[in-house]
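HUMAN: Can I see a protein plus its fold?

ASSISTANT:
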Amino acid sequence: MGARRRIGWCRLAVLVGVAVGLLILRPAGMSAAKRTVPAGGDLQAALDAAQPGDIVELAPGAVYSGNFVLPLKGQGSAFITVRSAPDPALPREGERIQPSHAPLLAKLRSPNGRPALATAPRAHHWRLELLEFQSNAGGSGDIMTLGDGSRAQNALDQVPHDLIVDRCYVHGDVEVGQKRGIALNTAATTISGSYISDIKAVGQDTQAIAAWNGPGPFTITNNYLEAAAENVIFGGSDPSIRNLVPSDITFTHNLLSRPVSWRRERWQFKNILELKNARRATITGNVLENNWLGAQVGFAVLFTVRNQDGQCPWCQVEQVVFEGNVVQHSSGGVKILGYDDGGESQQTRGITIAATFSPISTTRGGAVPVISCSSSATRATSSSTTTP
């Protein structure tokens, strides 16, 4: 009997010792743990193991191939940071990454048409920093999917939130392009200091950033955004969350462009910035350039409400401030549509425009208007515009 008691006491002591050891490893207030993933290491395992406040650090120049997912991590509000190892030559916070920084960046690449990085439902407080996202194999699909644009995300409590993409280089293949850089269907998300390029395709629309099934708020600032069809679009596909309008959009100090050399190539071209379903959008201090006639007539900016697939009668474009922007080297300026002329929608309203348009012209067929307002065949628009 005594021996059994001694054995039981030893087991209890071991268990207590293990518990105390765990507490010593991660006491309250301890600085974040750093989880280093070497070249060839298991990145997904590191993402799964990371805890709020941790840093997942990747090897510069290493390629991590897979379809990685940012998992849900309890209720903590400390960000988990996924980044390349620090280097003094990399841009600091508040600056913009450039393609020339690529040799210093860890690289994520999808081996198929699925995203290199996606989010689990309700995932939150993840920060992606100083990473390169290469084109998917074959240039199909989205390079990065934040939130879910499909019918699987059909309630607000499923939406990922509190996400940051900072100083990341996201690009398609120079030869075959890429359908989309970032699919943005989240809440409370910031994209800053990033460089998204070579987003282009033949016979289909392409976007550097596209958002349609997340409520916002969205902050998109100090980025270079390059795509053939629409550099940035809100809407364009009906949200699966009923009554959702992407809202509280802050879009500032971005350069939206495309190489002039593309004009001689076969990609599908449309416009630079398009709102089809958006509310409370502040668009200030941006440069939008290099837009020409293609699959559309040449307007650089479209505020054109659309019930895209016939399932969004609540779709609306309203309370948009477009001020302090420069629209240059474009066949046209801004087009505004009062109601969707192909389906039921809410009325476009509350549009303020005070921007510089220079030059607005085309070598084919003369210039289209700087600002064009139109309604459907049966409804009049009350959209207001203010020009300099």
